[in-house]
Amino acid sequence: xxxxxxxxxxxxxxxxxxxxxxxxxxxxxxxxxxxxxxxxxxxxxxxxxxxxxxxxxxxxxxxxxxxxxxxxxxxxxxxxxxxxxxxxxxxxxxxxxxxxxxxxxxxxxxxxxxxxxxxxxxxxxxxxxxxxxxxxxxxx
Length: 140
Fold this sequence. Notes:
By secondary structure, the chain is mainly beta. It has a single domain (about 15-115), classed as Sandwich (Jelly Rolls), CATH 2.60.120. Helix content is about 5%, strand content about 35%. The strands form 2 sheets. A 6-stranded antiparallel β-sheet has the order 1-2-3-9-4-7, with no helix packed on it. The chain has a 3-stranded antiparallel β-sheet with strand order 6-5-8, with no helix packed on it. The mean pLDDT is about 90. InterPro entries: Cupin_2, RmlC-like_jellyroll, RmlC_Cupin_sf. This is Cupin domain protein.
């Protein structure tokens, strides 16, 4: 495999679970298993569907806007603004809310790829081969 260049305006997947404009740019659909990069636009008032990454950490860099990162597992709501980075540990139920009167533009994603969540969302079929050393089972 060689170096490749991707562009946010040509994503191979859009996932409404994250937002009306969630572009999966680098993810298992592009054969990237350990580094994922999503470009996400949340309109004012929009929020992610609360979700959990059972095998991945999620890292979200805020390029534009202000909002709130909600940690449902630990009952926390943390405000953020452009230039902040939101880190979500494995297993924490969370969502990003554009609830402070502005839209949000962010980049980031789970690492390693959240294969169970992608399969549940129908983005990866069950028969997609994954690398031999890659975790696809949800811990109990």
